[in-house]
Each structure stands twice: as structure tokens, then as C-alpha cells.
Design brief:
Chain B: Its main location: membrane. The complex is a heterodimer of chains A (about 260) and B (about 300). Chain A is an all-alpha fold and about 260 residues long. Chain A is built from 11 helices and no strands. In chain B, helix 6 packs across helix 8. Classes of the chains: A mainly alpha (about 260), B mainly alpha (about 300).
């Protein structure tokens, strides 16, 4: 390949990564700005982080968001696993198309529509909104993603191994738990992580599904963001970005370790 | 297709996710369809149901004949909703095209990088997808504002004397969509380009094609599926987008997600919002189903 080709390639890569990362880097930089204004650099300061830890409302919302994300990701991974097993292993069963369609629909549906539907349903049934309805909303939103991820993993493992286990006397449940599950464990972890981040990030479904007692972090951030750029929001955003970076790095290391063990 | 009967264990496995999806997705969607033919009232819930679960079949039939499709008619008649649809589709289309123009060269540069670098490059390019969507959109406010980073830099470089108005415009919404949805376009195109056989390009070069001809007649046509998949993944969520137009758009940026939200929360007109939601879903799903059917037909034709 010619030299000009390489220059064009590297230049394109640099431009692409600058576009992707510049806003995030500027945001993180501003969280250490002593000045309240975007345009003025008032020196390095961590006072916005200190203010953050004094902000009880924000901390309470962060706890609710974390609890909802943990719980809904767990339920969504479990439901996604069952749905993926049904779609990967049960062959053609009656109402498979309806099941398949309903599982995948939230992938293409605008979140506003799903939120609208859930809220109307809760109101019509007279269910008071709060933490439980928030988790229901997030599970419904995220289980399509976990199903897709686990379905791909299940299709990748050889059913002959499970059949061999059953020939040797294992029950179908034993064969699945002892043979297939360890093979798709990395996919389970990434499906859980995906559902966790989606739930932690979600604003629209939460706004429809939750009640006054359970305001999530994105809802709190959103209501402050509408009033303009604020250094405290920059600080909490930077913390969240750091958290995601750690989780990503951790999962990459876990996957490498898994590869080395031959999983 | 031969449908087989499931064993008891299989039925139990299927029943758990099925019941969840039926209770919290299918039933709510049916309810939305039901509300969309109801009348708006000042009460809680703010609609008067047309149908009741206790209705007998004959009652249902007589009611069905006097069904009010007013909420749907209002969608076409009411210029607000109609304009919001047209402008959502238009903004999403322009943004999808812009995303394609940003993503294609980026994906090509990654796919043509040395093999051992590719997993790292694609990982770094996809990482922002995992960070908060809300925060990534919010980051653009600080860039686009009148006293924001971009305007300050341009003024400091003496390129402009007064700030350019970028924030709270439709252009800002398009930039926000391109930025937020870039990975959705990037990954399928990269996958399509990465899977191409290099010997096809070498053969074209041997037969005398210029680099531009190779790109237009070999590389681009072979990446068609990736481009279509990426375009759908960007266009469909962009049409119903709420956060980006709300944070980056001005008061004149009309998008259906925002209009729905306002009608539901601010105006409490649930029937109108439901009708608009049903119409939106039909508009979005129809091309998807047509595309899927065309794909199946093509597969059959090949056999």
C-alpha cells in the first residue's frame, strides 16, 4: 500500500477518535474547573466533587439507580437466558413468531412509546408507581438485549456436548447447567453488564415508570441539566464515566483470563 | 415448518419469559391501542374508555361500528402532529446520512488497519456507547453554546468576531444524533468491510481499475448490507428520539418523541398521544417488515 494511503488512514482514525472523545475529555476537564463558567478557567479545584458528596438528594438517587440496575439486570439476565434457551433449543413451537417478535420489539420501539404503554397499564390496573414499577420497566426494556446476546452465545455452543452428557446419564437440566452454562458464562456476564448500564443510563422509561419516592440519577441529572451547564453535573458525569471505564476494563481483563483458560 | 409439542419442562422454561413479555409488553401495547380510540376527559386516568372488559360480544360489535377514529383523524388534520412527523422523519433522515458519511471512512480506516490492531481500535471506538447517553448529549451543550468551547476557540483564533449560534438549533440536534448513534453505524459497516476478501480488490487492480473505481465497484457494493443495517439502526431510534431534541434543539425543533411526551405529561391528552404512538410504531415497523420480507424472498430465490 502507498504512503499516502497510510497517511489518509491514520488521519481518518485520529479525526474519528477526536470526534468521539473530545466532548468527554472537555466535560471531565471542566469538572475540575474552579470557575462556575464554561468559558473561564479558574484554576484546578475539586470543590464540585466535595459539593457532590454533600448533595443528599443526588446520593439518594444514585443509590436508587444502582439498586434498580442491579435488580433489573439480574432479572433480565435470568429471563433472557430462559428466552434464549427456548429460541435456540426448542425448534419450531406454536406461537414462536409472536414470542420472537414481542421479545425483539423493544429494540426498535421508541422508548417514549414503551414508557407510555407501561404507565397507562400501571394506571389502568391501579398499581402505585415506585421502585417496583421502575424495576418492571427496566426489565422489560433490557431483557430483549440480554436475550439477543445470550441467543448468539447459545447458538455458538455445540449441542452435541450436551447430548453426550445426556447419553452418559445426565438429566437435561444437569446437562444444561454443567455443560452449556459454563460455556456461555462470559456472555452471561456481558449480558448482565449491558442490562446494568442500560438501566443505569435510562431516563425515558424511568420517567414514566417510577413514582415520587424513587427518582433515579438520570432523572435528577436531567432536571438540573435543563437549567444549563453546571460544574456539579460535570463532576458526577466524570465519576460515572470513570465507573464505566473501570467496569469495561475489568470485563475486558475477565474475558482475556477466560480466553487463556480456554473458555 | 413442523411445529412440535413441548415437554412440560420446556413449557415451564418458556412460560416464565413469555408471561413477563405478555404482561408488561403485549398487554400495555393493546391498552395503548384501546386508549387511542377513547375520548379525552378531565379525570384520572384522563380518558373515557370506549370498551369495557365486561362488554358482551354484541355490545362490542355495536360499539365497534361507532368507533371513534377521531384521534387518528386529528393526527392528519392537526398540523402540530403532522408537522412533527414530517420533521422527525426529515431530521432523522438527514442525521442518518450524516452519520453514514462520518462512519464509513472511519470504519474503512479501521478495517484496513493491521490485523492485530483491529480489536483494540474497534473496542476504543465502541467504548463511548457504554457511557451514559444523557451525559454524552449534555457534553455537547458546553461545546455548542454561545460562550461554549467551540465559539471561544474560534474567537480566540480570530476566525470569527461574534459567536455563531449553534446551540438550540436543528443543526445541533443533527450533530447530537450523529455523535450518539455513531457506533450503531460504525460496527455493522466495519463488520461488512472487515469480512471482504482482499483478493477481490487485487483482482480489480490487476484488471486495471483505479483506486476510486475499486472503491465504487467492489468495496462499496460489497458493504451494502452493513450500510443498510447501520442506517436502520440509526434512523429508527432517531425518529422517536426525545433526549437529544429536548436538550440540544430549540423551541422550533419539532420532533415526535418530544411532542408525545408533552401531550402525555403536560397536556394530559392520553388518547391523542396513544394514537400518535400507534401511528409512529406502524410507520417505523412497516419498512422493517418489508425489508425482512424482501430479504427472505431473496434467500428463497437463491436456493
Amino acid at each position: 500500500m502507498s504512503l499516502s494511503f497510510h497517511i489518509a488512514r491514520v488521519g481518518t482514525l485520529i479525526a474519528g477518535f477526536v470526534f468521539l472523545y473530545a466532548p468527554i475529555v472537555i466535560l471531565a476537564g471542566m469538572s475540575f474547573n474552579a470557575s462556575r463558567l464554561v468559558s473561564v478557567w479558574g484554576g484546578f479545584s475539586t470543590k464540585w466533587y466535595a459539593a457532590l458528596f454533600d448533595n443528599e438528594l443526588l446520593i439518594a438517587s444514585a443509590k436508587i439507580s444502582l439498586a434498580a440496575a442491579l435488580l433489573s439486570a439480574t432479572i433480565a439476565t435470568f429471563l433472557g437466558l430462559l428466552a434464549a434457551v427456548a429460541l435456540a433449543r426448542f425448534g419450531a413451537f406454536r406461537s414462536r413468531m409472536l414470542f420472537f417478535g414481542a421479545i425483539h420489539a423493544p429494540l426498535v420501539l421508541p422508548e417514549v412509546v414503551l414508557g407510555l404503554a407501561l404507565l397507562s397499564c400501571f394506571v389502568a390496573l391501579g398499581i402505585g408507581r415506585g421502585f417496583a414499577t421502575l424495576v418492571i420497566g427496566h426489565v422489560t426494556l433490557t431483557m430483549c438485549f440480554t436475550t439477543v446476546a445470550l441467543l448468539a452465545a447459545l447458538r455458538g455452543c455445540d449441542p452435541a456436548l450436551e447430548e453426550a452428557a445426556m447419553d452418559l446419564g445426565a438429566t437435561p437440566v444437569q446437562a444444561f447447567a454443567l455443560v452449556a452454562l459454563p460455556q456461555i458464562a462470559p456472555a452471561m456476564a456481558s449480558a448482565f453488564l449491558l442490562a446494568f448500564t442500560l438501566s443505569l443510563d435510562d431516563l425515558v422509561i424511568a420517567s414514566f415508570a417510577t413514582g415520587p419516592g424513587a427518582t433515579t440519577l438520570p432523572m435528577r441529572i436531567y432536571s438540573q441539566v435543563r437549567l444549563g451547564v453546571s460544574p456539579q453535573i460535570n463532576a458526577i458525569s466524570t465519576l460515572l464515566l470513570g465507573l464505566v471505564a473501570l467496569a469495561l476494563g475489568g470485563s475486558a481483563l475477565a474475558m482475556q483470563a477466560g480466553k487463556r483458560r480456554g473458555l | 415448518m413442523i411445529e412440535r409439542r413441548l415437554s412440560l419442562g420446556e413449557r415451564l422454561t418458556l412460560a416464565i419469559p413469555y408471561l413477563w413479555i405478555a404482561a408488561f409488553f403485549l398487554a400495555p401495547m393493546l391498552l395503548i391501542a384501546k386508549i387511542s380510540v377513547s375520548q379525552s376527559v378531565l379525570a384520572r386516568p384522563p380518558y373515557e374508555p370506549r370498551f369495557h372488559w365486561r362488554d358482551s360480544l354484541s355490545e362490542l360489535w355495536s360499539k365497534a361500528q361507532t368507533l371513534t377514529l377521531d384521534n387518528y383523524r386529528a393526527l392528519v388534520g392537526d398540523s402540530l402532529y403532522f408537522d412533527a412527523y414530517v420533521s422527525s422523519l426529515w431530521i432523522a433522515a438527514v442525521a442518518t446520512l450524516a452519520t453514514l458519511f462520518v462512519a464509513y471512512p472511519f470504519a474503512l480506516a479501521m478495517a484496513r488497519s493491521p490485523r492485530r490492531w483491529r480489536p483494540f481500535l474497534i473496542g476504543v471506538a465502541a467504548a463511548p456507547f457504554w457511557t451514559s447517553f444523557l451525559i454524552r448529549v449534555y457534553a455537547w451543550i458546553a461545546l455548542l453554546k454561545d460562550e461554549g468551547v467551540i465559539n471561544n476557540a474560534l474567537i480566540a483564533l480570530d476566525l470569527i468576531s461574534a459567536p455563531i449560534e449553534m446551540f438550540a438549533t436543528t443543526g445541533a440536534v443533527i450533530v447530537g444524533i450523529v455523535y450518539s448513534y455513531l457506533p450503531f453505524m460504525l460496527l455493522p459497516i466495519y463488520a461488512a468491510l472487515e469480512g471482504q476478501d482482499p483478493s477481490l480488490r487485487e483482482a480489480a487492480a490487476d484488471l486495471g481499475a483505479s483506486p476510486a473505481e475499486i472503491f465504487l465497484r467492489v468495496t462499496l457494493p460489497l458493504s451494502r448490507d452493513g450500510v443498510i443495517a447501520g442506517a436502520l439502526l440509526v434512523f429508527i431510534p432517531a425518529v422517536g428520539e426525545f433526549v437529544i431534541p429536548d436538550l440540544l434543539g430549540g423551541s422550533d425543533t419539532l420532533m415526535i418523541g418530544r411532542t408525545l411526551w408533552n401531550d402525555f405529561f403536560a397536556n394530559h391528552d392520553w388518547p391523542a398521544a396513544s394514537a400518535a404512538a400507534i401511528a409512529l410504531v406502524s410507520i417505523l415497523l412497516a419498512p422493517l417488515l418489508l425489508w425482512e420480507r424482501a430479504r427472505l424472498r431473496e434467500e428463497e430465490g437463491r436456493r
